[in-house]
Amino acid sequence: MKTLYSRGTALGAVIAATVMPGIALAQQTADQPTSTGLAEIIVTAQRRTENLQDVPIAITAANSETLAQARVENVANIQAISPSISFRVTNIATSSANLIIRGLGTTGNSRSFEGSVGVFIDGVYRTRAAAALQNFLDIENLQVLRGPQGTLFGKNTTAGALLLSSAAPSLNEASGVAEVTYANYDTLIARGAVTAPLSDKVAVRLAGLFSRQDGFFTDSTTGKDLNGTKTRAVKGQLLFEPDENLTVRLIGDYSFSDGNCCYATSAFVDGPTQPIIDLLTRFQPSSSQQFLGVLAGLIPATAMTPTGRVLPARDPSKFEQTLNGDGNQEIEDYGGTLLIDAQIGEGTLKSITSVRKFSVDQRDLDPDFSGADIFRYNESFSSRFISQELVYNTKIPSLNAEAVIGAFFSDEKLRMGRSLPWGNQAQFYWDAIFASLGVAPGTAFAAPGTWTTERMGGTAKSYAGFAHLDFAVDDTFNVITGLRYSVEKKSGFFNNAFYRPIPTDVFTLLGIAPSPAYDETSTNKALSGTLGLQYRPTNDVMLYATYNRGFKAGGVNMDVNAAGTLINNAAVYNALPAPIRAAFFGNAPAQAPLDPRYKPEKVNAFEVGGKFQYMDGRARTNIAFFYYDLSDLQIAQFIGLRFTVLNAQSAKDYGVEIENMFQLTDGLTLGLDGTWIPHAQYGRDAKIDPVLSGSRFRFTPKFSGNATLNLDQPLGDNLNLLARVQAQYTSRQLISTATLDEQGPVALVNANLGFKLPQTGVLIEGWVQNLFDKTWFTQTFPTPLQTGDRNAYPGSPRTYGIRVRANF
Predict the structure, then answer these.
(1) Residue 646: its pLDDT value, please?
(2) What mean pLDDT is predicted for residues 108-134?
(3) 613 near 662, Cβ under 8 Å?
(4) Is pLDDT above 60 for 626?
(5) Beta partners for 492?
(6) For residue 446, which of 431, 433, 435, 465 has the smallest C-alpha distance?
(7) What is the C-alpha separation between 429 and 280, in angstroms, rounded?
(8) What is the pLDDT confidence band of residue 687, given thresholds at 50, 70 and 90?
(9) In the 8-state DSSP scheme, what is residue 372?
(10) Maximal C-alpha separation, the chain
(11) 533-543: string of b/e by CB count within 10 Å (b at 16+)?
């Protein structure tokens, strides 16, 4: 596989040589440059509108057009905006979607975890990053805040926050926008929005989206596309401004997507069971005795009945896979948000009220990730979430301070279910596995049919009060303080609605299931906060130093083996026939159930930075040095046949970012983005998996960088030439929480070329991502039921298309 790794192209060397001396990090500006210099970037990171250069927080900002040019249709490609942030997702978005900032994110897959990076859409916290995986609809701007957040937002986070804001209705005039993108893989994205005033006090805005994409993978047997998806979404808004002291905004949205996502993967390492898998992919045995004879070389494989299935190409660049089942995934996300801004006294009270429902349903999918029909997978996930946040922004003249005082409450109800049927080749597969252990064929029972149905769920309630004060000591010096008190109450349960009552069931003989039922609660209370100093020696220079104490609540692991395995389920274990207990468990005594709870994650984050403007406003450099000291870092791992949640006793993460933007001419800008993390490592800890103890964080390259040239050049009174070239580079990184699998350095090139008519609002642009069609992997994982075997999710191949936009 290493031959596929990009190990330093000439372009990558140029980027590294250009960026590394200054460790330069840049963002694509959220506004076009003007003839007098780079335009201001307005952000709301401190709950008020400010110039980004005046905010003592490391921020990346982008407006809707910047997101479109960078092909950031959702969070999947967010690294094109900043190399400090990345995204990973595997087969089930609700448990695997993971945003990572500065190396810190959610480690591993778990239904129970909230993200270390908080996602806020129109001020509403989303408990799962998967909510931002749907294509953005009518999003006006995006802000990435790096570092712990808690004294300015309703929900506290340890790694950072992603803020997404919808375009608001306009009271001034009716207008609209329509955009269509068509690309290879039969990709179509059509979106549009219209806004209109109904009176001088009321306005509405309606937006809609339709998208589809064939999967990058092809089933080598049927020729069917795999991992494809289709999405439909709508959003409606009502704005009411009765006077200058009150604004009421109601937002309702609905999104539904379906497709055969996301079980098509590439082989990464073939384990000892691969010959068995390959044979079962191509042939159907008549009996286990016949199959064992074939494996022993005593009977030719052609004596078995051909299945008609075809082995996929071993070259991952071919994107081939053979799967079983008519798999389908449906994702439904909808809700309403009420935003109220009221002038009260000398300040503004902002209320954010939200009710949301998010669900994922997967049916007849293939979790052995192969052409052998071993078992199928059905899983459901449902979240009902309500939240209320109150924030009062005011000035305290006697202290010469800006104050933010807030309270937050949220209540989430979670329900999950899973059923697992054995496929029509499971018996042959397990007889071969057990035979290699000296167990007679037929001892283990794996006949076709559902062998387990599981119920899981829980609740999560958050209560918090927070305050943030920014004291202006004089015109150049500020002191920033903030405190937050949080109470997090969570519960979680698991039980089997059905488990096939056969003592020789495969998972029973393996000692995995039926596992003990449980219903547990967890309560965490924490005081966190921030302290910072800000100094402005000149109008073009701002220096700052901050300390943040971050906190992410513990909880209850909602998984089948969270309280242990069969031996921890005394009633079932002791009821097994004595010969089975003797032969497979050595008559070991039953044990008590394990504690399914995990502890809170905490971080002490230190940051020193500066923001500089020079060259008469035509250049901007922002630098941040950060140091994180973490304790009880939450880790979810898939080990063999069991998901576990562990707390790493300690970890450290430090590095540097620099943001540079240069206006080379009135129409040409150069951005250089770079993040260098020399150290991101778990401490030595005997309680966590040895593969992680003392090891580097996963998905954390030492260096990552973007270099972007952006051209918006007038060619006449109503014609502009548009061009964009971006090079992205990441150094090698570990890409599995269960192994030491590594992805080597990767260099990608993206490009855009088009034109726009400024007076009429028409834009036509061609684009290509991954121009040189590099093949690389984003994540590997141990293949279920196949010890020693590992599969991988590859990054996107070359994609290209055309985008047409019109304003009216």
Answers:
(1) 85
(2) 85
(3) no
(4) yes
(5) 458, 520
(6) 431
(7) 8
(8) confident
(9) S
(10) 92
(11) bbebeeeeebb
Helices (H) and strands (E) in the chain, counts: 9, 43
Residue that is written with structure tokens 């951005």 in the block? 671
Distance CA 560, CA 238 (A): 44
pLDDT digits (tens, 9 = 90+) for 135-185: 899 999 999 999 998 888 878 889 999 999 999 999 999 999 999 999 999
Task: Estimate to the nearest angstrom the gap between the alpha carbon of 148 and the chain centroid.
Answer: 17
In DSSP terms, which residues pair with 651 in a beta bridge?
A: 630, 682
SS3 sequence, 189-249?
A: EEEEEEEEECCCCEEEEEEEEEEEECCCEEECCCCCEECCEEEEEEEEEEEEEEECCEEEE
Neighbour-count burial for 281-306, b at 16+ CB within 10 Å, e otherwise:
bbbbbeebebbbbbbeeebeeeebee
Phi, psi of 549 (to 5 degrees): -100, 115
The alpha-helical segments, DSSP class H, found in 441-552 are 506-509
| Residue 261: cis peptide before it, omega within 30 degrees of 0 | no
User: Which of the two residues, 340 and 759, has the higher pLDDT score?
Assistant: 340
| Residue 176: how many other CB atoms lie within 10 Å | 16
Count CB-CB contacts under 10 A for residue 78: 21
Q: Dump pLDDT digits (tens) for 3-42.
A: 333 333 333 333 333 333 332 333 333 344 445 688 888 8
- State the Cα–Cα distance between residues 342 and 319, nearest whole angstrom: 54
Cα(519)–Cα(458) distance, integer angstroms: 9
For residues 658 and 660, give the distance between their C-alpha atoms in angstroms, rounded to a whole number: 6
**How would you classify the pairing of strands 790-794 and 266-269?**
antiparallel
Q: Are 78 and 87 in contact (CB under 8 A)?
A: yes
Strand bridging mode 160-166 / 117-121: parallel
With CA atoms as reference, report the closest residue to 694 among 709, 683, 678.
683
Neighbouring CB atoms inside 10 A of 640's CB total 12
Identity of the amino acid at 149: Q
**What's the full length of the chain, in residues?**
808
Rounded CA gap, 18 and 1, in Å? 29
Nearest Cα neighbor of 333 from 137, 148, 493 is: 137
Q: How would you class 614 by CB atoms within 10 Å of its CB: exposed for 0-12, middle for 13-18, buried for 19 or more?
A: exposed
CA atoms within 13 A on the CB side of 469: 12
Handedness of CA 578, 583, 584, 590 (dihedral sign): positive
The tokens for 424 are 């029509």
DSSP 3-state of 75: helix
> Which spans in 725-767 are helix H?
none
Amino acid type, 220: S
Strand, coil or helix: what is 100? Answer: strand
565 vs 674: CA distance, rounded Å: 46
On average, the pLDDT of the chain sits at 91
